[in-house]
Amino acid sequence: MLAERKTWKPHFSIVFTGLFAGGLGALALTLYVAAEGVLDTLTVEDGVVEYTTALCYLIAATLFAWLVLRGRWGRGWFLLLAVGFFLVMGEEISWGQRLLGFSTPSAIEQSNVQQELTLHNLEGLQDNARLLGVVLFTLLYLALPIARGRDNELSKLIVRLRIPIPPMSCAVLALLGLGFMAVPRIQGAIVFSLDEVGELYLALAAAVFGLSQWSEVRQGRATLNPPPVPPAASARETA
Q1: Contacts of 54 (CB under 8 A, 6+ apart)
Q2: What are residue 112's DSSP bridge partners?
Q3: What are the φ and ψ backbone dihedral angles of 7, each rounded to 5 degrees?
Q4: Against a cut of 0.70, is the pTM above it?
């Protein structure tokens, strides 16, 4: 019975995430088709969707920062993820510029497409930053879990490096998020509101990733691939 519960949990997580993510996507598409003005209001700068996206990244950054202090394995990876998600959070809300009401430094304002305190909106970086983000999230949420699940040299390298692996529920969220951004572009259009919905999905994946690693530590399990057992120790345990 215990073994059955262990195998059921990840499947339940994927199903639950799929239903939640599918419902959120259906709502967004319904608003886009039938009430585009409502979706535009929700996805405007400093709107509900933007701050929810930032909150998800803050949750992920906080959890990985906690894991840097408490995680048994892979503190370097946890630190990298904590810093990375914190930077994305800050960029998402322009480092609190509009909340705190301070002006953009002139050196940045002159070269920033939106005249705000962000790096990803600097001229020449805006499109490249989005492309880089898509590539990194694709590698993290899709390529890495697939590679880890195969029996080859790349999978063994991932084990040796003790890289944290996102749960497959993150892949569900990432695929939907990338779809919201990619499909309009394939059709020759860039839809800001749908881009914001796609970014929300990626942020939710970050929060789920952090929660999954945090949960493993709280339950006393190894958070990453543990180091290989020395042959001598393995032989003694077998005996």
Answers
A1: 89, 92, 93, 203
A2: 122
A3: -80, -20
A4: yes
